[in-house]
Specification:
The chain is mainly α. It has one domain. It contains 2 helices and 2 strands; from the N terminus they run H-H-E-E. The chain has a two-stranded antiparallel ribbon.
Length: 74
């Protein structure tokens, strides 16, 4: 069953967080021309979320209110 993220505030927030993690990782890997240190809205969002949750990056981590785990492929 597919759910449109616009139907739920919680799903919209999850989309923003997932997008920020993806943007930082792609930027650091050189897969996008974007820069998390830059002034783009995506870069600002990455830095804001990291600041709010006292994170240095979106590397895999599990701590209070934050759990990031990279899926492993075989």
């Amino acid at each position: 069953m597919d759910i449109d993220s616009r139907a739920s505030t919680e799903l919209q927030l999850a989309d923003l967080f997932a997008g920020a993690v993806n943007y930082e990782r792609k930027s650091l890997a050189g897969l996008t021309s974007g820069n998390v240190s830059g002034s783009s809205p995506k870069g600002q969002l990455v830095r804001y979320i990291q600041q709010v949750y006292s994170l240095d990056s979106f590397a895999d981590i599990k701590q209070y209110l934050v759990s990031i785990k990279t899926a492993q492929t075989r």
